[in-house]
Amino acid sequence: MQSRMDSPAMIVPDATQALQALGKSLFTSAEKTGIPSRTLFLTYLRASQINGDSVCVELHSRNALAVGESTERLLAVSAWRETQYFNDTERAALALSEAVTRLNDRVDPVPDEIFNEAARHFDGLALATLIAGIATANLWNRLNVSTRQIVTVSASE
What we know:
Elements: H1 8-11, H2 15-33, H3 37-51, H4 54-66, H5 71-76, H6 88-101, H7 112-121, H8 124-146
Helix pairs in contact: 2-8, 3-4, 3-6, 3-8, 6-7, 6-8
């Protein structure tokens, strides 16, 4: 398996640095607003699963494990509605991640019910951080999927 080309983030001047700076600012904001890193990684993982981005699925799974996420919960993310592994705040974040990722699946892509439930669990800055993070994950997914980026880390590492 081979990618079509290098990632556009690596080719476009300063793109990688800009995206890394955005990611850093989102994690800084999450820390200030009390969003656990695990929650961010779960939402990024769910978006990446939906978009079929193996590079980001691998990355976010590894990052989540590194901050203490359990293997059982990671394996259940794609079926989060059917499990009891996730609390109400995480469920609100995962529902928001799915809605923001699947914009074309509904007439009202992010319905009030999903947005308001997320807003019930996250204040304004935290919600903005979560939405911007999900959007950023989707950007990386689109860069990776369109150029068929492949996972370069072995499973044994």
